[in-house]
Amino acid sequence: MTVVVGVRFRDRGKIYYFDPVDIQVNIGDRVLVETVRGIEMGNIAMAAKDVPESKLVLPLKKVLRVATPEDEVIDAANKKKAQEAMEVAKTKIAEHGLEMRLVDAEYTFDGSRVILYFTADGRVDFRELVKDLASALRTRVELRQIGVRDQAKLTGGIGPCGRALCCASFLNDFLPVSIKMAKDQNLSLNPTKISGTCGRLLCCLRFECEHYEVAKTALPGMGAIVITTEGEGKVIGQNPMKGTVTVQLEDGKTQEFPAEEVEEKKA
Fold this sequence. Notes:
By secondary structure, this protein is of the alpha+beta class. The protein has helices at residues 69-96, 127-137, 148-155, 166-169, 179-184, 191-194, 204-216, and strands at residues 2-8, 16-18, 30-35, 38-51, 63-66, 101-107, 113-119, 140-145, 225-228, 231-239, 244-249, 254-258, 263-264. Helix 1 packs across helix 2 (127-137).
Protein backbone atom coordinates (compact mmCIF):
# COMPACT_ATOMS: atom_id res chain seq x y z
CA MET A 1 0.00 0.00 0.00
CA THR A 2 1.15 3.53 -0.81
CA VAL A 3 0.01 6.76 0.87
CA VAL A 4 -1.36 9.24 -1.68
CA VAL A 5 -3.37 12.45 -1.82
CA GLY A 6 -5.77 13.43 -4.60
CA VAL A 7 -5.30 16.71 -6.45
CA ARG A 8 -7.60 18.48 -8.90
CA PHE A 9 -6.32 21.15 -11.27
CA ARG A 10 -9.76 22.28 -12.47
CA ASP A 11 -13.14 22.48 -10.80
CA ARG A 12 -14.85 19.09 -11.24
CA GLY A 13 -11.78 17.86 -13.10
CA LYS A 14 -10.21 14.45 -12.76
CA ILE A 15 -8.45 13.62 -9.48
CA TYR A 16 -4.76 12.71 -9.81
CA TYR A 17 -2.72 10.89 -7.19
CA PHE A 18 0.44 12.43 -5.75
CA ASP A 19 2.97 11.50 -3.09
CA PRO A 20 2.44 13.87 -0.12
CA VAL A 21 5.96 13.09 1.16
CA ASP A 22 5.88 14.48 4.74
CA ILE A 23 3.64 17.44 3.99
CA GLN A 24 0.42 17.68 6.00
CA VAL A 25 -2.47 18.79 3.80
CA ASN A 26 -6.23 19.01 4.17
CA ILE A 27 -9.06 18.91 1.65
CA GLY A 28 -9.34 22.31 -0.02
CA ASP A 29 -5.68 23.26 0.47
CA ARG A 30 -3.93 24.80 -2.52
CA VAL A 31 -0.68 23.01 -3.30
CA LEU A 32 2.14 23.04 -5.81
CA VAL A 33 2.91 19.68 -7.40
CA GLU A 34 5.35 18.28 -9.89
CA THR A 35 3.77 17.07 -13.14
CA VAL A 36 4.94 15.96 -16.57
CA ARG A 37 4.07 19.47 -17.79
CA GLY A 38 6.11 21.17 -15.08
CA ILE A 39 5.10 22.70 -11.75
CA GLU A 40 1.35 23.27 -11.40
CA MET A 41 -1.04 24.49 -8.73
CA GLY A 42 -4.04 22.43 -7.71
CA ASN A 43 -6.52 21.80 -4.92
CA ILE A 44 -6.45 18.87 -2.51
CA ALA A 45 -9.64 16.95 -3.34
CA MET A 46 -8.88 13.73 -1.46
CA ALA A 47 -7.16 13.44 1.91
CA ALA A 48 -4.19 11.11 2.41
CA LYS A 49 -5.11 7.44 2.19
CA ASP A 50 -3.55 4.08 1.40
CA VAL A 51 -3.99 2.87 -2.18
CA PRO A 52 -2.78 -0.51 -3.58
CA GLU A 53 0.23 -0.11 -5.85
CA SER A 54 -1.65 -2.05 -8.56
CA LYS A 55 -3.95 0.98 -8.96
CA LEU A 56 -1.10 3.49 -9.27
CA VAL A 57 1.20 4.55 -12.06
CA LEU A 58 4.60 4.52 -10.38
CA PRO A 59 6.75 6.40 -9.61
CA LEU A 60 4.35 9.01 -8.20
CA LYS A 61 5.03 12.69 -8.69
CA LYS A 62 5.39 14.67 -5.46
CA VAL A 63 3.57 17.44 -3.65
CA LEU A 64 6.18 20.20 -3.44
CA ARG A 65 4.57 22.50 -0.87
CA VAL A 66 1.38 24.17 0.30
CA ALA A 67 0.76 27.31 -1.76
CA THR A 68 1.79 30.63 -0.23
CA PRO A 69 0.17 34.07 -0.75
CA GLU A 70 2.98 34.80 -3.21
CA ASP A 71 2.07 31.65 -5.16
CA GLU A 72 -1.55 32.80 -5.32
CA VAL A 73 -0.41 36.10 -6.85
CA ILE A 74 1.55 34.21 -9.52
CA ASP A 75 -1.47 31.98 -10.23
CA ALA A 76 -3.73 35.01 -10.67
CA ALA A 77 -1.19 36.56 -13.03
CA ASN A 78 -1.05 33.34 -15.04
CA LYS A 79 -4.84 33.36 -15.44
CA LYS A 80 -4.69 36.91 -16.74
CA LYS A 81 -1.91 35.93 -19.17
CA ALA A 82 -4.04 32.98 -20.32
CA GLN A 83 -6.86 35.35 -21.31
CA GLU A 84 -4.39 37.48 -23.24
CA ALA A 85 -3.03 34.34 -24.92
CA MET A 86 -6.60 33.47 -25.98
CA GLU A 87 -6.96 36.79 -27.80
CA VAL A 88 -3.58 36.40 -29.53
CA ALA A 89 -4.42 32.81 -30.52
CA LYS A 90 -7.80 33.81 -31.99
CA THR A 91 -6.11 36.40 -34.14
CA LYS A 92 -3.41 33.98 -35.33
CA ILE A 93 -5.97 31.24 -36.09
CA ALA A 94 -7.89 33.70 -38.28
CA GLU A 95 -4.68 34.76 -40.03
CA HIS A 96 -3.83 31.12 -40.82
CA GLY A 97 -7.40 30.42 -41.94
CA LEU A 98 -7.74 27.30 -39.82
CA GLU A 99 -11.12 25.65 -39.16
CA MET A 100 -10.78 25.40 -35.39
CA ARG A 101 -12.62 26.94 -32.45
CA LEU A 102 -10.60 28.03 -29.43
CA VAL A 103 -12.19 26.99 -26.12
CA ASP A 104 -9.78 27.76 -23.29
CA ALA A 105 -6.17 28.47 -22.36
CA GLU A 106 -4.03 27.88 -19.29
CA TYR A 107 -0.43 28.46 -18.26
CA THR A 108 1.57 26.06 -16.13
CA PHE A 109 2.47 27.62 -12.79
CA ASP A 110 6.08 28.26 -13.73
CA GLY A 111 4.98 29.95 -16.97
CA SER A 112 7.07 27.55 -19.06
CA ARG A 113 4.15 26.43 -21.20
CA VAL A 114 0.71 27.58 -22.34
CA ILE A 115 -1.91 24.97 -23.27
CA LEU A 116 -4.62 26.00 -25.73
CA TYR A 117 -7.75 23.84 -25.99
CA PHE A 118 -9.76 23.80 -29.22
CA THR A 119 -12.45 21.89 -31.06
CA ALA A 120 -12.54 21.06 -34.76
CA ASP A 121 -14.58 18.83 -37.05
CA GLY A 122 -11.51 16.89 -38.16
CA ARG A 123 -7.74 16.84 -37.99
CA VAL A 124 -6.04 20.23 -38.19
CA ASP A 125 -2.48 20.88 -39.34
CA PHE A 126 -1.47 23.55 -36.84
CA ARG A 127 2.32 23.21 -37.04
CA GLU A 128 2.83 26.67 -38.52
CA LEU A 129 0.34 28.13 -36.08
CA VAL A 130 2.31 26.72 -33.12
CA LYS A 131 5.52 28.30 -34.40
CA ASP A 132 3.78 31.64 -34.85
CA LEU A 133 2.20 31.50 -31.38
CA ALA A 134 5.45 30.48 -29.70
CA SER A 135 7.12 33.52 -31.25
CA ALA A 136 4.29 35.86 -30.23
CA LEU A 137 3.83 34.52 -26.69
CA ARG A 138 7.52 33.81 -26.06
CA THR A 139 6.87 30.47 -24.40
CA ARG A 140 6.24 26.84 -25.31
CA VAL A 141 2.81 26.32 -26.85
CA GLU A 142 0.74 23.15 -26.71
CA LEU A 143 -2.45 22.88 -28.77
CA ARG A 144 -4.84 20.22 -27.56
CA GLN A 145 -7.92 19.16 -29.50
CA ILE A 146 -10.89 18.21 -27.29
CA GLY A 147 -14.34 16.79 -27.96
CA VAL A 148 -17.64 18.63 -27.75
CA ARG A 149 -18.45 17.02 -24.38
CA ASP A 150 -15.15 18.31 -22.96
CA GLN A 151 -15.98 21.74 -24.39
CA ALA A 152 -19.32 21.76 -22.55
CA LYS A 153 -17.55 20.78 -19.33
CA LEU A 154 -15.05 23.63 -19.69
CA THR A 155 -17.50 26.35 -20.68
CA GLY A 156 -20.50 25.27 -18.58
CA GLY A 157 -24.10 26.29 -19.23
CA ILE A 158 -27.72 25.37 -18.52
CA GLY A 159 -29.18 22.04 -19.60
CA PRO A 160 -32.69 21.43 -21.03
CA CYS A 161 -33.81 20.59 -17.47
CA GLY A 162 -33.04 24.15 -16.38
CA ARG A 163 -30.16 23.16 -14.12
CA ALA A 164 -26.39 23.62 -14.53
CA LEU A 165 -24.84 21.05 -16.86
CA CYS A 166 -24.05 17.76 -15.10
CA CYS A 167 -20.60 17.64 -16.69
CA ALA A 168 -19.81 21.14 -15.41
CA SER A 169 -21.24 20.68 -11.93
CA PHE A 170 -20.40 17.22 -10.58
CA LEU A 171 -19.38 14.64 -13.22
CA ASN A 172 -15.67 13.84 -13.15
CA ASP A 173 -15.49 11.45 -16.11
CA PHE A 174 -17.48 10.83 -19.26
CA LEU A 175 -18.96 7.33 -19.52
CA PRO A 176 -20.55 5.84 -22.66
CA VAL A 177 -24.23 6.70 -23.19
CA SER A 178 -26.44 4.63 -25.50
CA ILE A 179 -29.85 5.11 -27.11
CA LYS A 180 -30.95 1.94 -25.29
CA MET A 181 -30.73 3.86 -22.02
CA ALA A 182 -33.28 6.35 -23.34
CA LYS A 183 -35.55 3.51 -24.44
CA ASP A 184 -35.29 1.85 -21.01
CA GLN A 185 -36.45 5.12 -19.43
CA ASN A 186 -39.46 5.38 -21.78
CA LEU A 187 -38.21 8.66 -23.20
CA SER A 188 -39.05 10.14 -26.57
CA LEU A 189 -36.33 9.24 -29.06
CA ASN A 190 -36.55 12.70 -30.61
CA PRO A 191 -32.86 13.79 -30.79
CA THR A 192 -33.72 17.30 -29.61
CA LYS A 193 -35.29 15.84 -26.45
CA ILE A 194 -32.48 13.51 -25.42
CA SER A 195 -29.43 15.53 -26.49
CA GLY A 196 -27.48 17.97 -24.36
CA THR A 197 -26.07 21.37 -25.32
CA CYS A 198 -23.03 19.55 -26.71
CA GLY A 199 -25.23 17.73 -29.23
CA ARG A 200 -24.51 14.31 -27.72
CA LEU A 201 -26.83 12.09 -25.72
CA LEU A 202 -27.60 13.49 -22.27
CA CYS A 203 -25.13 12.37 -19.59
CA CYS A 204 -28.03 11.95 -17.13
CA LEU A 205 -29.30 9.03 -19.23
CA ARG A 206 -26.28 7.13 -17.96
CA PHE A 207 -26.30 7.79 -14.24
CA GLU A 208 -30.11 7.62 -13.97
CA CYS A 209 -30.27 4.34 -15.88
CA GLU A 210 -29.30 2.20 -12.90
CA HIS A 211 -32.05 3.75 -10.76
CA TYR A 212 -34.63 2.98 -13.46
CA GLU A 213 -33.42 -0.62 -13.68
CA VAL A 214 -33.80 -1.08 -9.92
CA ALA A 215 -37.19 0.66 -9.84
CA LYS A 216 -38.52 -1.51 -12.68
CA THR A 217 -37.85 -4.71 -10.74
CA ALA A 218 -40.67 -3.70 -8.37
CA LEU A 219 -43.17 -3.41 -11.26
CA PRO A 220 -44.96 -6.10 -13.30
CA GLY A 221 -43.38 -6.43 -16.75
CA MET A 222 -44.85 -5.05 -19.94
CA GLY A 223 -47.58 -7.34 -21.27
CA ALA A 224 -48.07 -9.08 -17.91
CA ILE A 225 -51.62 -10.06 -16.97
CA VAL A 226 -52.50 -8.51 -13.63
CA ILE A 227 -55.37 -8.33 -11.17
CA THR A 228 -56.34 -4.84 -10.06
CA THR A 229 -59.03 -3.28 -7.87
CA GLU A 230 -60.96 -2.67 -11.10
CA GLY A 231 -60.58 -6.19 -12.43
CA GLU A 232 -58.18 -8.10 -14.64
CA GLY A 233 -56.07 -6.45 -17.32
CA LYS A 234 -52.75 -6.24 -19.18
CA VAL A 235 -49.83 -3.96 -18.37
CA ILE A 236 -49.26 -1.56 -21.28
CA GLY A 237 -47.10 1.05 -19.54
CA GLN A 238 -44.72 1.58 -16.63
CA ASN A 239 -43.67 4.64 -14.66
CA PRO A 240 -40.72 3.54 -12.49
CA MET A 241 -40.29 6.98 -10.93
CA LYS A 242 -43.91 7.09 -9.72
CA GLY A 243 -43.99 3.36 -8.98
CA THR A 244 -47.10 2.87 -11.13
CA VAL A 245 -48.24 0.79 -14.10
CA THR A 246 -50.82 1.55 -16.77
CA VAL A 247 -53.24 -1.33 -17.26
CA GLN A 248 -55.66 -1.99 -20.10
CA LEU A 249 -58.71 -3.52 -18.46
CA GLU A 250 -60.96 -6.16 -20.00
CA ASP A 251 -63.55 -3.55 -20.95
CA GLY A 252 -60.92 -1.73 -23.03
CA LYS A 253 -60.41 1.16 -20.64
CA THR A 254 -56.91 2.07 -19.43
CA GLN A 255 -56.06 3.13 -15.91
CA GLU A 256 -52.93 3.85 -13.89
CA PHE A 257 -52.42 1.89 -10.66
CA PRO A 258 -49.79 2.03 -7.90
CA ALA A 259 -47.64 -1.12 -8.00
CA GLU A 260 -48.81 -2.18 -4.53
CA GLU A 261 -52.44 -2.29 -5.77
CA VAL A 262 -51.60 -4.64 -8.63
CA GLU A 263 -50.99 -8.37 -8.40
CA GLU A 264 -49.49 -10.33 -11.27
CA LYS A 265 -51.73 -13.24 -12.26
CA LYS A 266 -50.19 -16.65 -11.79
CA ALA A 267 -49.91 -18.79 -14.90
